[in-house]
Amino acid sequence: MEPINIIQSRTVLMPAKDIDTDQIIPARFLTTTTKEGLGDVVFNDLRRDASGNDIDTFVLNQPQSAGCRILVGGNNFGCGSSREHAPWALLDYGFQAVISSEIADIFKSNSLKNGLLPIVIDADTHADLLSNPGVSVTIDLEAQSIAIEDGKTVKFPIDSFARYCLLNGVDQLGYVRQQSAAIDAFEENRTWTP
C-alpha cells in the first residue's frame, strides 16, 4: 500500500444516489483474489452495453475523466453487500479517494483497510462539488482538509488509526508487524503464562 498524504486531481462525478457495491463491481467479477485488472471492470454494467461495447455517455468513458483520481459520488455511496473488491476495483482504475455526503459504513471500512480514502463532507459542499464537474480539488490527509479551486476549504473526519495507516502506507497487519520488536520483548519478559 502506498502512503497517502496529498491528493490533487480534478473530480469525476457519479451523482446518483445509492450506488451499491454490485454497481461498482458486479458479482460475476468476484472470483479473483488479486486486485490487478479489476479497474477494467469497475462500473462494468454502467460503462458497457450487453455486447461489451463502451457506452459513450458514461462518465468514465469520456476523455475529461482520464487521469482523475477523485470520485465524487451521490448520497449513500457504496451501499449493498460487503466486498473488498469494490475499493480494489476503484483503486486499480486509478481513484485514490471517494467523496460524498454519506458513504456506507462497510464500504468505508473496506476502503480504509485497502488504501482508498473515503471522505464524508457536509451536504452544501457536496452539492457544490456535484454542480461543478471536473473541478480541481486538493485533499490533505494530514490536515484532514479539502481545498477546492474556488478557494473553499472544508475539514473532514477520519478514524485516527486509519489515518495513521494511510499516511504511513500500512494496513492493519503491517501495523502489527511494525510492533514485532515490542511484542517479542513483551513475550520474553512476561512473568505469567497464558
Write a brief caption for the model.
This protein starts with 5 loop residues before the first strand and ends in a 5-residue tail after the last helix. It has a seven-stranded mixed β-sheet with strand order 4-3-2-1-5-6-7. The protein is α/β, with parallel strands linked by helices and 194 residues long.
CATH level-four homologous superfamily name: Aconitase, domain 4
Helix and strand sequence: EHHEHEHEHEEEHHH
Largest sheet: 7 strands, mixed
Quickly give the structural class: alpha/beta
Count up the helices: 8
Overall geometric form: globular
Uncertain runs: none
End-to-end separation in angstroms reads 34 Å
Q: Could you say what the CATH architecture is?
A: Alpha-Beta Barrel
Folded structure, characterized:
The chain has helices at 21-24, 44-47, 85-93, 105-114, 123-130, 160-168, 172-178, 180-189, and strands spanning 6-14, 70-73, 97-100, 117-120, 136-140, 145-148, 153-155. 31% of the residues lie in helices and 17% in strands. The mean pLDDT is 94. Strands 4-3-2-1-5-6-7 form a 7-stranded mixed sheet. It has 194 residues and is an alpha/beta fold. Helix 4 (105-114) links the parallel strand 3 (97-100) and strand 4. The protein has one domain: Aconitase, domain 4.
